[in-house]
Amino acid sequence: MNYDYFFIGLSFSASVFSTFLCLVLLGLKLAKNTCDLAVKKAIVILISFFAISIFFYSTTFFEAFSLVRLSYIKELNFQSALLMPILFYHFIFELTRLKKADKFYYFNYVTCITIGLSLYFFQTKQGNPHAGIHFPVQGFPSFWVAKEAILLASMYNVIYLTLSLYRLIRYRKNISNYSSNEEQDSLLWLYPIFVLGFLLLPGSIVFYVVPVVKQHLFFGQLLPNGLFMFFAISLCYNVFCENFALGTEDILEETITANKLKKTKEKELFINKDTFEQYIAEKKPFLNPQLKITDLLYDLMTNRSYLSQFINTTYKMNFSQYINHCRYQEYLRLQASLGATKKTQEDMILASGFRSYESFKRTQDSFLEREGADRRISS
User: Fold this and answer.
1) What count of other Cβ atoms lies within 10 Å of the Cβ of residue 83?
2) What is the pLDDT of residues 234-260, one digit of tens each?
3) What percent of the chain has pLDDT over 90?
4) Distance between CA atoms of 353 and 181, rounded to whole angstroms?
5) Residue 179: phi, psi to the nearest 5?
6) DSSP strand E in 216-272: where?
7) At what angle do helices 223-240 and 190-200 cross, to 10 degrees?
8) Cys bridge to 179: 103, 185, 261, 281, which one at CB 3.0-4.6 A?
9) Of 322, 325, 348, the residue nearest 336 (C-alpha)
10) Concatenated DSSP letters for 140-171?
């Protein structure tokens, strides 16, 4: 018995069936119809990504074991290799939109399909469609075939992964001035997925540069399949649990303006510090664990940019830090007033507006560190 083939087949099966299970789970979530439209769109894109991934790994498996010898299998496999990074970028795009005008351009798909069709027609033109891809080295088409096809697909992956990572970094720079619930809105869970992606998707460049790696059972077959299995499961888990919050700041602001400020002729941008602090003390908006800066705009008669700038300038904190600071002060007040009652620490943390103990602990550590620094400066 050839154990190499056994382990290769097992690794391909694990990646394909785990991805298929992820696809089914997300399909069931979509069928329940409990998500809003923006979340549904993100789920549909991720389901499409999983479907193309299953096709890619299945056709790669057929090629590796020479189970199917059809001329178009290689072309479709190559097409799916180009589609995967675009679908992943489209998915990240939907999660990281901050502006209503930020539109995804579908020419990305058109370009991808055009490259795939061009490869197929160039191969057919050679008059030997059943022999696989065997172009002469010279000439324009040769860049898209044989080993160069692998290199092109890998470059495609690197470009779109880099664009996706750039969007995530830009999004995280802005979200702290928008949401008080950074652990859900910050998409921090995507960073390990990007690590897997950069190890996995452009990996065929390594095969191109160091061909011996491709022949290695562990590095060439088992490791890539295992990485993709964890890649798919991590994506599915976080999307299934909706470990994110979709909604662009100007869309939310426009909705509030349209619904609540119809009778208001002019919005007052100026914010008085005393009035602002009185509003925070009386209304206690920070008790809402899902509070966003746009939730305060109607009462304060201002816009998002001015309010964010006011908080940064006045309190030397971003919006998230300021709201969590207010929650911690509320926690200290509850702790002092409740004393030895049956109210537990966890109850007080939740009653103060914190979404979790971890969020409270981060705020507490930051508060104590800031307090210690102020003491050192005063002494």
Assistant:
1) 23
2) 999 999 987 877 655 554 454 445 444
3) 22
4) 10
5) -120, 145
6) none
7) 150
8) 185
9) 348
10) GGGGGSHHHHHHHHHHHHHHHHHHHHHHHHHH
